């Protein structure tokens, strides 16, 4: 159920006594937090606002590798930069060995804005206020819902649309004194605001952009025996089943461990990442680390020999066959 109580404000990351002193000083100077924030612009309202509104975004973790900034992600980043000239944003990132961020499937914006600069800190607060404010019908988090914002990380803390009752929570121990160095500003999101989006939000299908309420989209589901899912292809209205981490069996070779680490990840001509050499080793071709035309040809031959469709691509069935070929007895 969507909460109807007041939207929780960010809790400060310093002592309440200091807060009291600061609050009294602000009152005496006639410069309150809300007054200073009011002088900072906010992003525009949606061009068309339908009577309905999206539910708060469910948590859908990254599980695929398609490092291309999605259309809705790109539009949100550009909206923030247009509203606040002089800032910038980043979207997609190259993928690691295992999924760990919505950046890797193009669903996250890093809006470059520093908490150490007064103007930029006010800009960040203005964005948060704009995302969390209730609409004319009293529905909280209205713009966050219309954009499909799944969670926000900013200035040592994280807010999740799927955990609104918890408000802002400490992120990764970032409020500790030992983590206040400038060198940790990126890790603790003090020099940028991170916004992860639902699939509907990332694809630009939500009502902020279209004027029509978007149905929930859970994206591609990961098979229980694969570390990765194939890249996004079309909306999925059904929640994915929970699956655990895939681990190598006792006595597994380095090759098998590598195959399991990258299992399910798409591989096409020109691909170059940690799993390519392991695949090349199993199919008996030169281990260059790049999935070249020669490798594709060798893969087709190998697939035919193992009663698989000879596409040269790594289907789930092909990944399973590769693992089985080096599975310990």
Q: Which spans have pLDDT < 50 for at least 5 consecutive residues?
A: 1-6, 14-37
Tally of helical segments:
11
The best one-word shape is: elongated
Profile the largest sheet: 6 strands, antiparallel
Tally the beta strands.
6
End-to-end gap: 51 Å
Strand order of the largest sheet: 1-2-6-3-4-5
Integer count of domains: 2
From the alpha carbons, calculate the radius of gyration and give it in angstroms. 23 Å
Helix content: 25-40%
Average residue-wise pLDDT: 90
Order of helices and strands: HHHEEHHEEEEHHHHHH
Beta-strand level of the residues, as a percent range?
A: 5-15%
Could you say which structural class the secondary elements and strand pairing correspond to? alpha+beta
Account of the protein in words:
With 329 residues, this protein is an alpha+beta fold. It folds into two domains: 16-210, no CATH class; 254-325, Orthogonal Bundle (Muramoyl-pentapeptide Carboxypeptidase, domain 1). It is 31% helix and 8% strand. The chain has eleven helices and six strands. The chain has helices at residues 16-29, 33-38, 71-83, 118-132, 142-147, 199-202, 207-210, 254-262, 276-283, 293-305, 316-325; strands at residues 88-90, 108-112, 149-154, 157-160, 169-170, 192-197. Strands 1-2-6-3-4-5 form a six-stranded antiparallel sheet. α8 (254-262) crosses α9 (276-283). The longest helix has 15 residues, at 118-132. Mean pLDDT is 90; it is low at 1-6 and 14-37.
